[in-house]
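quick one: FE2/S2 (inorganic) cluster bound model?
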Amino acid sequence: MKRKLQLVVIGNGMAGMNAVEQLMKLTDSCDITVIGQEPHPNYNRIMLSYVLDGSKTMDDIVINPRAWYDEAGITLHTGTTATRVDTTRRVVVMDNGHEVGYDRVIIATGSTPFILPVPGADKQGVIGFRSIEDCDRMMEAAKLYKKAAVIGGGLLGLEAAKGLVQLGMDVTVVHLPDFLMERQLDEKAARMLQTELERQGLKFALGKQTQELIGGERVEGLRFSDGTELEAEFVVMAVGIRPNVELARASELAVNRGIVVDDYIRTSAPDVYAVGECTEHRGVCYGLVAPLFEQGAVLAKGLAGVETKPYEGSVCSTKLKVSGVDVFSTGLFLETPECVCVTFHDAWKGTYKKIVLKDNVIAGAVLFGNIDDASKLERLVKQGAEMTEELYNELTGAGGCCGTKANAAADFADDDIVCGCNGVTKKMIVDAITEQGLTTLDEVKACTGASRSCGGCKPLVEQLLQHVLGDGFEAGGSKQGICGCTTMSRDEIVAAIREKGLRSTKEIMNVLDWKQEEGCSKCRPALNYYLGMIWPQTYQDEKESRFVNERMNANIQKDGTYTVVPRMYGGMTTPAELKKIADVSLKYNVPLVKMTGGQRIDIVGVKKEDLPSVWEELDMPSGYAYAKSLRTVKTCVGATYCRFGTQDSMGMGALLERKFERIDYPAKVKFAVNGCPRNCAESCTKDIGIVGNDGGWEIYIGGNGGIKARLADLLCKVKTDEELIEITAAVLQHYRETANYLERTSDWVERIGLEHIHKTTVEDAEGRKQLVARMDEALSSRSEEPWQQVISDKGLRDKMFGKVVFQQ
Ligand SMILES: Cc1cc2nc3c(=O)[nH]c(=O)nc-3n(C[C@H](O)[C@H](O)[C@H](O)COP(=O)(O)OP(=O)(O)OC[C@H]3O[C@@H](n4cnc5c(N)ncnc54)[C@H](O)[C@@H]3O)c2cc1C
Ligand SMILES: NC(=O)c1ccc[n+]([C@@H]2O[C@H](COP(=O)([O-])OP(=O)(O)OC[C@H]3O[C@@H](n4cnc5c(N)ncnc54)[C@H](O)[C@@H]3O)[C@@H](O)[C@H]2O)c1
Ligand code: SF4
Ligand code: FES
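yep, here:
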């Protein structure tokens, strides 16, 4: 029998064991010994952040239990440190005095947290965050102490800080630069991140250099170089990492910052390899798993004698693992004179997208709030793709900055990476599902490696399972909820609100075990909507759960001013109203008055403090241009004036607008009413489009002229105005009751089907009556006109807009 190759792996961490697993897939010709300093079998270090925030247990994060080593015939020494590789005698020396001979050695000793060399850094209560033991220490500290400081506002520091907040501590993140995650984000994204994290309970001390840790034996606080101090009974240092190179130095290998390796992951000594965070390749030391696994793939092939391309370095992509915060960065992220940036910032939705182009090549990107395009951008950056008109439209159009896609993964190209950590493409997953009959996330994980590391790609893998298997796939325990705070779907939440009689967002979060006590910016507005829809008579709207524009009753603009759009029923106004708009615009120095596509007038550039006076002096109702409500009813001139018109479109438009305005819908709603099929007011692109025909009306639904254009579908034809109003009420109420929050009718119609809507609102007369009754109940409990509410409530006016000085 051929003698097996004696392979010794030093370091039982993520990079070393990944290389071993990749090797075992290629060959069984190695006899493997693993030496690990930690007392545990191989675990997923990345998941320590989830253990800390309480969403995973220690057991959940074990990658390979001891039984796996036994079954694979691997000799495992845990709690043992290798001290030297004797390249002359070809043995690895251990701290317990034992030696093991080798044919090949892999050094995978990882890194250690960098501890700031400041006085007091050795006090009790000061730790780094790297291991299971560190995690235990944090959980213990949270039971005994209240005030914590995390030094370093990078990925690790923020994940640690969030975990400590979840454990009930009062946490301040102390950061040297002026904005967070400056190694991955530009200032804009970093500020948005800070705002969201502050909302989740984190505090920040930015631009602060720690000079000393003060206290007795135990730390009591931090003193900064500007002389200020911060109280802290527990301190986590997360200011970066340093490769573990002592063993390599002792073994006389070439070492700079890390152990120097070439493009085939070889060190300076024959038959000695190094992989992972301990290495330095082409001058770069990596600190994320994807590059380490890429190195491992080249190494495994080299050891197995399989031809391999050289490792030429990696493009790094990162996602922060904090629930309720979607932030992604890949490649270049800063604006430099050589770069052109495509940026979109939607202050209302809280989303930001920046694509960095260098010589027209996509060289990097930053996403905040919506990271649907993360995988696509990661692939484009890796490929060095050129920006084209088509790509530009793809990246900035549907699902760009603002849209969230129902099944983003289904739209991926075959070679798009789904799991960045493990380099698994859509095709690899789809092939595995179809060829090997996989039906669960765990099976895909075991077969392809996707979702095995940070878990960030789980929703995408599930989407692919859903896409391939259709109804045959049921998301398991890891199914995606409406946001990171819950695993419950919209339908489950709505059912629970009804069944359990839940009456406030707080109560929902308590009873339904929200992961974050306060929820996040995704779930709070949604819950507020569902509660108002279910309990129209009694629910007290939670203004603070609404988006900023809805709280202010006006749309905030780029420069911090607001727009004011008064209601003009059916797109009609009078000379007297026009004069008032002109007078007010002049008096408040408004720079622009704009006609909108919905046939009304937009007063642009009003200062925040002037809003109440502008509303008061206009004395017109709010046009709800900021709300998820009925926005506009566009009308043509119709039978009253047009020689082709057979129906009174203006009259019907104004009537419908008055009837259905001022209640909440899942998303904004626009109507159009036309006097004849010439369709001058463009019913085909409206949520509800009405067209006069044959002395009656045609009702179209689900049109959209915006980011994802869609032609409306003909729902039915009716003879009378009464039927028109009744069916419109039923459709709107059905939409209110079954759509996901923020889902436009165009998506809703596609999701639940025109046929189903027809059955429910047209064919089923009894069901329609009930929908109309529930719509009437909602309409009868609508609140006061919002501008009037502010004008007439001095306290509210002062609270929202400061003290307004009235001129005599
Ligand atoms: C809390 C946390 C969250 C993270 N989240 C992410 C994330 O979301 N995404 C991401 O890509 N990366 C993340 N990382 C980084 C990622 O965990 C590391 O890149 C990865 O673990 C590095 O793998 P490694 O094998 O090189 O080092 P390690 O996993 O540190 O393994 C090295 C092992 O070698 C052992 N060792 C050291 N010296 C010796 C010796 N002389 N003899 C024997 N054994 C020795 C060590 O004890 C250790 O067990 C995170 C890290 C932390 C701490
Ligand atoms: N989600 C993820 O991908 C993830 C999560 C955790 C950790 N990690 C990895 O783990 C490693 C360690 O993470 P990290 O955040 O410690 O490293 P890091 O180097 O990414 O960030 C350290 C941060 O500390 C700041 N800092 C440096 N000196 C400071 C000082 N004196 N006072 C205050 N702030 C100071 C830096 O400006 C920097 O932003 C990194 O490689 C990281 O990529 C990744
Ligand atoms: S849609 Fe018909 S009725 Fe209305 S303006 Fe056009 S032509 Fe006239
Ligand atoms: S992206 Fe990290 S496990 Fe897939």
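The radius of gyration is 31 Å.
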